């Protein structure tokens, strides 16, 4: 009777590892980290290095457990201190993630950018923001792709009036070229001495600003108005000529209150089918059944090869059976058959699909 000899393993098993890789001086260096801790370290949320690194060891290949040589570390980093090298790799290295993790990260960043775009834009007709679902659909139509090198936090912080090259602003400019969408106006207060009020009004007219209110009671005259965000910096420079200043009251201004009666009248709400139409559908289904029975008898009489579709409960010629299985009618009845529902005729199927599409469009519509 043979016995298996179990040898001790002198190797540290690294499981559930997030690998950070850095190439320097033609060499590859890797460190083993805990999952979901690398991004927390880079965003300065996690400050304890022991909570990020599984070991203060630099590898040339983490999966095989091959350690980096000391002479290679000294040549590449100028030191052989493992902790300092781990910190540099953690800051500058590339995080190796799986496909699902990368997809989830990009999806989260895409959602964050869409949220910023929704907060900063309005519909020019209704002066109301689009829903997040509509913004995401428009971003997919312009084939927008998230930059994986920028985190969501950096993209959120980089969205400002001073930086025109940010991700969200580029998306808004691209959307404005193809769809009815524009930047939400800024609500600001312009203040100037009373002798310079006439010059202030001239500049407000030049900026095509929408005046909300005026206040001439005190020693300083003030005007509350809405302007385009892109001219805020030029307004600050030109107000120096009239000894004025600008104060931002709201970054994005949307229409307040509910929709007007005219907007509700223009919305087409699908009405329920009248009784006559339902009776007509029933009559059509009866005639379709009669035609299927007659076609079955005629097919048997003439000797044509026909096959019965059990999902749609109709007879189809053998040469047309493949095309019938690819039709939307057959696919809809197949779904109903799986759910234990009776089959529908072709006309009933079209009516039901149109009602489903109209309800879906109505759900996505922003009132």
Automatic annotation (TrEMBL):
Source superkingdom: Eukaryota
Matching PROSITE patterns, A to Z?
UPF0023
InterPro entries reported in the protein's UniProt record? Ribosome_mat_SBDS_CS (IPR018023), Ribosome_mat_SBDS_N_sf (IPR036786), Sdo1/SBDS (IPR002140), Sdo1/SBDS-like (IPR039100), SDO1/SBDS_C (IPR046928), SDO1/SBDS_central (IPR018978), Sdo1/SBDS_central_sf (IPR037188), SDO1/SBDS_N (IPR019783)
Q: Which residues form the Ribosome maturation protein SDO1/SBDS C-terminal domain?
A: 187-251
Record localization? Cytoplasm; Nucleus
Q: Which residues form the Ribosome maturation protein SDO1/SBDS central domain?
A: 111-155
What UniProt keywords apply to this chain's record, in alphabetical order?
Cytoplasm, Nucleus, Ribosome biogenesis
Quick one: a GO cellular component term?
A: nucleus
The protein's matches in SUPFAM superfamilies, at most eight in alphabetical order, are given as:
FYSH domain (SSF89895), Hypothetical protein AF0491, middle domain (SSF109728)
- Biological-process GO terms, alphabetical: cytosolic ribosome assembly
The record's section on Gene3D superfamilies has: 3.30.70.240, Ribosome maturation protein SBDS, N-terminal domain, SBDS protein C-terminal domain, subdomain 1
Chief site of localization = cytoplasm
Stretches assigned to the Ribosome maturation protein SDO1/SBDS N-terminal domain:
16-102
Q: Note down the stretches annotated as region Disordered.
A: 284-304
Ranges of compositional bias, category Polar residues: 286-304
**Similarity comment: family membership:** Belongs to the SDO1/SBDS family.
Q: Subunit arrangement?
A: Associates with the 60S ribosomal subunit.
Q: List the protein's name.
A: Ribosome maturation protein SBDS
| Protein source organism | Digitaria exilis
């Amino acid at each position: 009777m043979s016995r298996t000899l179990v040898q001790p393993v002198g190797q540290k098993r690294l499981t559930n590892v997030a690998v950070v890789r850095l190439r320097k001086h033609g060499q590859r260096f890797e460190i083993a980290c805990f999952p979901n801790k690398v991004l927390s370290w880079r965003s300065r949320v996690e400050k304890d290095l022991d909570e990020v690194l599984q070991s203060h060891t630099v590898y040339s290949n983490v999966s095989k457990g091959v350690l980096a040589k000391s002479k290679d570390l000294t040549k590449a980093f100028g030191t052989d201190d493992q902790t300092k090298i781990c910190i540099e790799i953690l800051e500058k290295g590339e995080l190796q993630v799986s496909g699902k993790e990368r997809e989830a990260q990009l999806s989260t960043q895409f959602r964050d950018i869409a949220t910023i775009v929704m907060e900063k834009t309005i519909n020019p007709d209704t002066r109301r923001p689009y829903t997040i679902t509509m913004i995401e659909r428009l971003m997919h139509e312009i084939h927008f792709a998230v930059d994986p090198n920028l985190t969501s936090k950096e993209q959120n912080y980089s969205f400002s009036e001073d930086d025109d090259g940010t991700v969200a602003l580029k998306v808004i400019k691209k959307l404005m070229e193809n769809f009815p969408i524009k930047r939400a106006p800024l609500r600001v207060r312009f203040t100037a001495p009373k002798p310079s009020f006439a010059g202030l009004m001239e500049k407000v007219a030049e900026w095509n600003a929408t005046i909300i209110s005026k206040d001439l009671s005190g020693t300083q005259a003030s005007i509350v108005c809405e302007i385009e965000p892109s001219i805020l910096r030029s307004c600050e420079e030109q107000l120096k000529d009239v000894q004025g200043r600008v104060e931002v009251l709201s970054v994005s201004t949307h229409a307040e209150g509910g929709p007007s009666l005219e907007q509700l009248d223009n919305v087409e709400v699908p009405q329920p089918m009248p009784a006559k139409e339902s009776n007509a559908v029933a009559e059509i289904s009866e005639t379709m059944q009669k035609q299927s029975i007659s076609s079955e008898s005629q097919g048997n009489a003439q000797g044509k090869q026909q096959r019965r579709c059990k999902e749609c409960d109709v007879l189809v010629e053998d040469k047309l059976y493949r095309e019938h299985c690819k039709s939307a009618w057959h696919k809809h009845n197949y779904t109903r058959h799986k759910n234990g529902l009776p089959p529908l005729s072709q006309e009933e199927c079209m009516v039901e699909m149109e009602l489903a599409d109209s309800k879906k469009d109505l759900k996505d519509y922003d009132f």
